Amino acid sequence: MDCIFCKIINGELPSKVVYEDDHVLAFHDLSPQAPTHVLIIPKKHISTLNDLQDEDAALVGRLQLTAARLAKEFGFAEDGYRVVMNCNEAGGQTVWHIHMHLLGGRALTWPPG
Ligand code: 5GP
Ligand code: ZN
Questions:
Q1: Residue 54 domain-assigned?
Q2: Number of compact structural domains in the chain
Q3: Which of 3, 11, 16, 72 has the CB geometry, 3.0–4.6 Å to 28, for a possible disulfide?
Q4: What is the mean predicted confidence (pLDDT) over 91-102?
Q5: Which residues of 48-82 are buried (b: 16+ CB within 10 A; e: fewer)?
Q6: Does the residue 113 lie in any domain?
Q7: pTM score, two decimals?
Q8: Ligand 1, atom 17: nearest CA belongs to which residue?
Q9: What is the chain's percent helix, strand, coil content, to nearest 5?
Q10: Is residue 99 flagged as an active site residue?
C-alpha cells in the first residue's frame, strides 16, 4: 500500500508517536501549524471522509475522544484548541488516509483561509 500514513503505522516511516492503541495512532505533524499539532489517524486505511461506512462510526468516535484526551494531556483543553479533518482537494486534504488535526497552544483565528 503506497500510503505514507500506513507506512507510519507499520513502522516503515518514522514518526513522533504521542498515543497508540489497537485502532488509533497519534503523532506530531511534520510541519506544525501551532505549538502543538498532532495528527490522529485510524489504523484502518480509509482514503477520505467520503469513504466512511456505518461500521466506522465507533472508529471516528475514537479519533475525537483521543483528540479531547490529548488536549487535556497537553494542557490546553481549558484554553481551547481545534480539531480539523480536511476532505479532498478543495478541503485542503493532501494525504489520502483520513486524519484528524489537533492544534493547540496558541489562539487560532476563524474562519480558516
Ligand atoms: P492534510 O493537508 O491532508 O489535511 O494534512 C496532512 C498533514 O500531514 C500535513 O499537515 C502534513 O504536514 C502532514 N504530513 C505529511 N507527510 C508527513 C509525514 O511523513 N510525517 C508526518 N508526521 N506528517 C506528515
Ligand atoms: Zn493508509
A1: yes
A2: 1
A3: 16
A4: 98
A5: eeeeeeeebeebbebbeebbeebbeebebeeeebb
A6: no
A7: 0.98
A8: 30
A9: 30, 20, 50
A10: yes
